[in-house]
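[job 4417] fold queue: 2 targets
>>> target A
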Amino acid sequence: MKQASRLTRDQAEALAIQALTFIGGDAERLGRFLAVTGIGPAEIRKAAGEPGFLAGLLDYVASDERLIEAFSNEAGLDPLAIDKARAVLAGRLWEREIP
């Protein structure tokens, strides 16, 4: 059985940035994200450069099944890619890839 391909850190970061763009493209989604995280609209660019922001962003997406589905459908990706990217950005192996 062929093992699933692993994401590189660059690919995981690109997926997280894509998720941020997705969230930022809808006022309601963006408002909820800002409210939950406590980040102000003027601070989001600075926050995006902070260590852990992109992993936290994917944690936020993964916490809402409807958001996962909407983002996955719009981005044309398997929802499991979000979990894989979260694992890469957190510096751990994705559980299903551990022998």
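>>> target B
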Amino acid sequence: MTETSPAAPSSTFSRHDKIILALVCTAQFMVILDVSIVNVALPAMGRSLHYSATGLQWVVNAYVLAFGGFLLFGGRAADLFGRRKTFLFGAMLFSAASLAGGLAQNSGWMTAARVAQGLGGAFLSPATLTIIVTTFSGPRLPKALGAWGAVSGAGGAVGSLLGGVLTAELSWRWVLYVNVPIGIAVVIVAFTSLTEAARRPPGAKLDVAGAVLVTVGLTAVIYAIVGTDTHPWGSGFTLAWLGAGAAILALFALVETKLAKDPLIPFSFFKSRATSTTNIVMFMVGASTFSMWYFLTLYYQEVLGWGALKTGFAFAPQAIAIILGAQISARLMPKIGTWPIILFGSACSTIGFFVLAHLSPISPYFTFLIFPTCVLTFGLGLLFSPLAASATSHVGHEQAGLASGVLNTSRQIGGSFGLAVLATIAVNATKNVLPSYVPSFQHLPSLAEKVALNHGYHIAFFFGGVISLIGLIAALFMPRNVGLAARAAAPVPEPVSS
């Protein structure tokens, strides 16, 4: 049994196509879900595992650090060692790490488990997009990308919803345990249904020096960014890590352009205006939207005083809006291309942020909050599939993993950078209103603290809108014919035995 139907203009999925699409979408959903599912559970985790107020950030940052640092390595591994092997490795590591996190008895144990989860996700996530673009062609590709885009976008909102339900009804540990049965099912289906379609070019091998340098360099930069919660941007700590990361990445560029025979990232890859502008837009999307779920979760619980369950259900309309946007995007791409959809999606997200910047300590959910959050997330749903199509349509199948890894890295580093910058802005704005404020998950905020926190979130959403607006401006410089044409016409490689 092969993984693809014979090349044809038909837009119908075979039974096996549906299995493969469900497999990769489930895996991608699991990875993206874990970025946000822990947010609602953070206060309970902090109390149970005795995290300090500043140390609790590492439940999120440890995952982000490993995930973002290893994405390029994971993407290239899918090209060279095969999408099936890379997918299975990532899925098994992610599932095992989720179990370890659920069993954690102290903060160090939990942080280590989150690092392992991020590493597994860094191999799993690029492999899912690689499988999509090397399996489907013609009219089936926009539909497949639409499904992938829907779960990529909805994972953040559903993560907050599911995290709230699990934390309130069971325990915070179940925000990690939930990945275990899903991961086991993914591995079983992958073993039985997924064939290997990647053929390593003759003599090609992994650029070990490049892989080490880019991973260490990106990790140093992300570490500096996520550490700004406790170390100011101008501190020696932050500047030292940023400088070290920049120096290592500069050395990586030298190795790739002058020394490597088979570079991890051929720099000609970025000469394409489609590649460069697409990744700039994705960077801005990550920088703005990652922080949105983080700040909304804190706003609902710390300012409005909601519990974990109510907070979780407040994100349900956002998940629906993202899925709706992704499905509309998939239907429009073959008709109007990707560029108009990217512009409109960016505009929706920008509008949503600027409206959210007017929230108050008593903003009503149904008459105020639901509109901007759904407009914002509808725009996000519109964006993921066209950006994925734009990033992968101009490269050959042998570089699909690389394109996927670069796109995911742009989103992840953008998310880390945006959250660090906006969190710093929010904290400073809060302290301008209430200089004595000290973050703590050990007590409910007073009325004065709620007013100060609301002001901080208000300012953060405004600057999130500014970042989103920069992404919209960058999208204006994308080639207008970028999209699915090249990929739709490209033949799908024959599967090979695994």
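[job 4417] complete. Note on B: The mean pLDDT is 78.
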